[in-house]
Specification:
single chain, alpha/beta, 11 helices, 42% helix, 13% strand, binds coenzyme A, binds zinc ion
């Protein structure tokens, strides 16, 4: 559990989950060579990021940018103590992840039926059923298990999302064996009040150490939303080096929160994060050269 600093009520330290190599690259039209992805992942781990989401074992037709996951993951020189989760939607993906030497998995569903249908062609219930054997197998293998819930603050297809639904899906993911749930503002529509409201509802049912926030900066509100999460003691935040990425299945969803901006905010608030933002920026710059 993260300690709470006296007075401010904010956590003393934050864990940053780097999603650039997955959420970033899946939204770039350029196909980055496998060795450059590997270099990007390794540079991010070298920058002190404790979790670097490496790639996705999804259908190559759905996300051609990450179709080389089977090649990329085994090439990554792992840094001790760093986790490299990979996205897995079904047992087919789990088998690929296992062969490639993964040791951490992330499953992903949504708070909105319409979005989930378009993103993975499943109902929310159907996706949870598909994850059951994935998470069971991951548990047998001793892998770290993360769950994502997209569109938790609004959906491009269905508009408003009911917080009670967010809570229901998060509880279901934890019941299936996820150790942490990343609550996503996939299209960047949340306002700080929304973050406070959803966090309050979640905290009625979930331990704060199981909640991460995955914020997009579409309307420039991501950092204000991080502050709102910090007020509610949430101490895990997803971000993307250089602010690259988004979700190609959510039109109008560019721009994850940049890891460097998150570090700067935390530095200003005196909250520890252990990341060298200069090294993150250098990694993002090197990657950008590959994208242009
Ligand atoms: N890895 C590789 N290929 C896979 C796969 C996996 N994990 N799962 C399914 N496939 C292949 C199937 O073999 C099939 O290939 P074919 O058309 O050449 O025969 C094709 O993908 C479709 O499979 P199907 O089982 O009919 O699933 P679907 O078309 O309903 O797609 C998903 C379901 C989940 C596989 C697909 O929607 C997907 O990968 N979505 C990922 C979206 C994503 O990553 N979003 C990012 C988060 S914002
Ligand atoms: Zn995202």
């Amino acid at each position: 559990m993260s300690e709470t600093s006296s007075g401010s009520g904010r956590p003393r330290s934050v864990r940053i989950v780097e999603v650039g190599p997955r959420d970033g690259l899946q939204n770039e039209s350029a196909l980055v060579p496998a060795e450059d992805k590997v270099a990007f992942i390794e540079a991010l781990a070298d920058a002190g990021l404790p979790v670097v989401e490496a790639t996705s074992f999804v259908s190559p037709r759905a996300v051609p940018q990450l179709a080389d996951a089977d090649e990329v993951l085994p090439l990554v020189r792992r840094r001790p103590g760093v986790r490299y989760p990979v996205l897995v939607p079904n047992m087919r993906g789990m088998e690929r992840a296992e062969r490639a030497g993964a040791d951490a998995v992330a499953v992903f569903t949504a708070a909105s039926e319409a979005f989930n249908e378009r993103n993975i062609g499943m109902t929310i219930e159907g996706s949870l059923a598909a994850f059951e054997p994935v998470l069971e197998r991951a548990r047998e293998l001793g892998w770290w298990r993360r769950g994502y819930i997209s569109t938790a603050f609004g959906c491009p297809d269905a508009g408003a999302v009911v917080p009670a639904k967010v809570v229901e899906v998060c509880v279901a993911l934890l019941d299936l064996g996820c150790e942490e749930i990343s609550v996503g503002d996939t299209i960047g529509v949340a306002e700080p009040d929304d973050v406070r409201r959803v966090c309050d509802r979640l905290l009625d049912r979930l331990a704060v150490e199981t909640i991460a926030l995955h914020l997009h900066d579409t309307r420039g509100r991501a950092l204000d939303n991080v502050r709102a999460g910090l007020e509610r003691h949430v101490s895990i935040y997803d971000s993307s080096a250089g602010g690259t990425g988004g979700c190609p299945f959510a039109p109008g969803a560019p721009g994850n929160l940049a890891t460097e901006s998150l570090c700067a905010l935390l530095d200003g608030l005196g909250i520890e994060h252990g990341v060298d933002a200069g090294k993150v920026a250098a990694a993002a710059t090197a990657l950008r050269a590959e994208l242009s």
